[in-house]
Design a protein that fits this description.
The protein contains 3 helices and 8 strands. By secondary structure, it is of the alpha/beta class. The protein has 2 domains: 97 residues, Transcription Regulator spoIIAA (2-Layer Sandwich), CATH 3.30.750; 53 residues. The chain has a 6-stranded mixed sheet, with no helix packed on it. Strands 1-2 form a two-stranded parallel sheet. Strand 4 and strand 5 form a beta hairpin. 15% of the residues are buried.
């Protein structure tokens, strides 16, 4: 895709960020099912992603776009294989996010509270992009508070304060 970097440089940068900012939420965009992608390459991608301290993936399933160069490439990956691979990577992403949240238990985060009132709760995001929920109180809308991240929700997709 004509990137100006290779996987080694990408890994070095991700590891460096993690070294200097261990609580950084690092996500990566990934396209799955690009023409020519073999089973071996996909499995290599899984191994590579698993080796990195990423907090999440943004997974995109390749789709043909008119007037793109790739539409004429050989080795089209069947749509059912693309979808299967996408689900595998989304599952890896979910697991990485849970692991990231667990690693951040005890972190004192600055949380920007949003105005959502979902069943008596409000949500915000920490300074390192962790979703946090609390009992809805209007006084917190659009404010920043410092909160220790201790209690993870039953669904494990946000912290409760």
């Amino acid at each position: 895709m004509k990137r100006k970097y290779n996987r080694e440089l990408f890994a070095q940068r991700i590891n460096y960020i993690n070294q200097v900012m261990p609580n950084a939420f690092i996500a990566a965009d990934i396209i799955v099912g690009f023409p020519g992608e073999t089973d071996e390459e996909f499995n290599s991608t899984i191994d590579f992603i698993n080796s990195l301290p990423l907090a999440a993936l943004h997974v995109f399933t390749y789709s043909e776009r008119p007037n793109s160069l790739a539409i004429n490439f050989d080795g089209k990956v069947p749509i059912n294989i693309r979808k299967k691979r996408s689900l595998i990577l989304q599952d890896i992403s979910n697991n990485k996010k849970k692991e990231f949240y667990i690693r951040n238990i005890g972190y004192n985060a600055k949380v920007l509270w949003e105005s959502d009132n979902e069943k008596g709760r409000m949500f915000g995001f920490s300074d390192n992009y962790i979703k946090v929920g609390r009992k809805f109180e209007e006084k917190y809308i659009n404010t920043i508070t410092e909160e220790p991240l201790i209690n993870i929700s039953n669904t494990k997709d946000y912290f409760i304060v």
